Amino acid sequence: MSIIFFLLLLSSCTSSVLSADVNDGLVLLKIKEQLGNPQELSNWVEGFQFCGGLAYTGSYGQVECTSTGRVKHLAIQSIMTAPAAPFPEAICDLTELEALTINFLYNLYGPIPSCVNQLSNLFTFDIERTGLSGSLSESLFLNHQKLQYLILSSNAFSGSIPASISTIPTLKDLDLTNNSLNGTIPPDLVRGPDSSLLLNENRLTGEIPKCYQWVPLGWFTVSNNKLTGDPSFLLSKENILVINLSHNDFEFDLSDVEISKTISILDLGFNKIYGKIPQSIATGDHFIDLDVRNNELCGDIPQRKVLPWQPYEAANFADNKCLCGSPLPPCDNPGPAP
Ligand SMILES: *[C@@H]1O[C@H](CO)[C@@H](O)[C@H](O)[C@H]1NC(C)=O
Ligand SMILES: *[C@@H]1O[C@H](CO)[C@@H](O)[C@H](O)[C@H]1NC(C)=O
Ligand SMILES: *[C@@H]1O[C@H](CO)[C@@H](O)[C@H](O)[C@H]1NC(C)=O
Q: Where does it localize (predicted)?
């Protein structure tokens, strides 16, 4: 090999990258083929230097490699031209993959194949807005012991949430929003400070396990399910930031709940919550986006000294049993004269 040729190779890639680049390069071409050779990936051709010093190869298909030339990050997004295709199983051969993102691929259908178990180095597993469906099996994530972000929102997954997710020692964020998942919420799904559990818009039933009292959650959102019981212990959690319990069948007395000082968004709308709004909601000094509409609450709305409820927030208190006081009409004058 001539020295000049060798130097040219070095300039586009380190020498160790080259051979490995070719290996995972063929896998990437296989993925493209399994996706039906979409127009958006037309720059993925034989000989293309996927790792060749470029972090990204285009907005539709983005590749980042390790220093040894294996694919480390893969993002495939907004591909509309492909014919309907199942999950490209060749992805499972990218065994050094740490982050997988598949977004806006509505033509992708069928289940997540069990071979994703081979991707044991993943810390981000993000599949959003596809047509993928079927149940999430208990064994699907058992090998993912480094996973921190599991995001499967806006797909068509059904069946129950695998309880085995709780065995992932590092899982910080779980987002299963907008699927057709049913059954109850398993305990201990996420861990670590500021973790988030986002389960909105599914068909979940039952009560929220009490163990979530001990998980240092930042975000907890379960709106638009069919959940029942008394999850008021969540409202007192230290360091919680966002709680959305709206559109469920929760039924509890709010009167004596100590509202956490850290909450900035609290949506309790469209449940069967009764009693009074506790004074503790009014003592914080930061903005609270509070929504309690359509419950069975009664009595004085506590008035905040700092950052009062704004007039436009009247709707957030509407359709209760007998709430009164600003931003609703005063308590001694509950509405216009007949
Ligand atoms: C829910 O998911 C479907 C399918 O991906 C999508 O079309 C819809 O916009 C999503 N809804 C929301 C509120 O994100
Ligand atoms: C959940 O949905 C599946 C179908 O997707 C059904 O077979 C199962 O009985 C449902 N389970 C519950 C608890 O509703
Ligand atoms: C709570 O979640 C629902 C969607 O499920 C959304 O419409 C609503 O705006 C959320 N509430 C807040 C305060 O963000």
A: Cell envelope
